[in-house]
Amino acid sequence: MIIDFTFYNPTKIIFGKNSLDKLEEELNNFGEKILFTYGGGSIKKNGIYEKVIAILNKCNKKIIEFGNVTANPTLDKMLEGSKLAKENEVDLILAVGGGSVIDCAKGISATAYCEGEVFNRYWIRREPVTNKTIPVASILTMVGTGSEMNGGSVIRDVKQMIKEVRKFPVECFPKFSILNPEFTFTVPKFQMVSGIFDVMSHLMEQYFSGNDDNTSDYMIEGLLKSVIHSAKIAIADQTNYEARSNIMWCATLALNTLVGCSKSQDWEVHAIEHQLGAYADTPHGMGLCCISMPYYRYIYKYGLDKFVRFAQVIWNVDGQGKTKDEIAREGIDCLEQFAKDCGMVTKLKDIGCTREMLPLIANSSILGGAYKKLNHEEILHILEQCYE
């Protein structure tokens, strides 16, 4: 562990089949007015909405509903929530849904009492949050983003055609998150496997950096193995509690900042996908899946030893009689085959992206990388490899 770090995470995780029973106890720690934030209505179909409403009423809370938060939440929708939260002087934002709903809730928390152009201030220029924030809590219904235990908020400004992440300070982390794996059983298979690749991508973005002997890398390898093992079971039986619970906990651990400790990290795949999402409004995990393999095939030589390790430790690639280059490439091939076996999308043309979008996406995706910093032409080349 050669890079200094400070680790702190204030989110309380309440995990398991009976975790919703703890909601009443947690709500007693907050004021009367609750901004009940949720997505497109699936929680009304699967019964979660009624259960939460009943508990809120039992606790004598004043409920201000804020629904229809979409995937890839927009700035306009977030600002609508911010206005509602401020006007009603809410005491808690309770986000019930997947990562998009929780991301939007954190954005509302940070911006309800902010003056000026909040997106440019907080997402583009990343100014410190000095205004009052509103506590956030979450009840997770879809696995993938890890938003239930971090300060990340990904918001899409459709006017500027920018989808950007802001890592907010601990004040905007959920105060508590309720994780019941059974709440994810009704998520369609397409969304489930999209979330699974999102989890894997979070782990790989942190893994593919550095050449030191780092405890975090061993933790990442264990989580990747768990996700891969449980994904195969969950795809065959979406109501397998053990598999779904393992995937849910892996998703949380993948992005609660723990396994990133003392890591330089990459995040270029996410930077490219965020701009893909700005133009094509793609399912996030599937966009990551399309980009990852071509990206890794382009950069693996710059971090060859780590890619060899990935192939052998994660995919059990036999290195006998093979060069390091061959082993590394075989590991990436194994990743791609796993994605296909799971029914994930591997080509951008299949998730709403057009060829005309590629140069525009490449214009705004340059981040930093870990093993290699890419330029516009290199990103465009990778996107062309992702397309078809």
UniProtKB/TrEMBL annotation:
Residues 10-181 form the Alcohol dehydrogenase iron-type/glycerol dehydrogenase GldA domain. InterPro entries: ADH_Fe/GldA, ADH_Fe_C, ADH_Fe_CS, BDH-like. One of its GO terms (cellular component) is cytosol. Keywords: Oxidoreductase. GO terms for molecular function: alcohol dehydrogenase (NADP+) activity; butanol dehydrogenase (NAD+) activity; metal ion binding; methylglyoxal reductase (NADPH) (acetol producing) activity. Pfam families: ADH_Fe_C (PF25137), Fe-ADH (PF00465). Its EC number is 1.1.1.1. Residues 193-386 form the Fe-containing alcohol dehydrogenase-like C-terminal domain. Coiled coil: none annotated. This is alcohol dehydrogenase. It comes from Piromyces finnis.
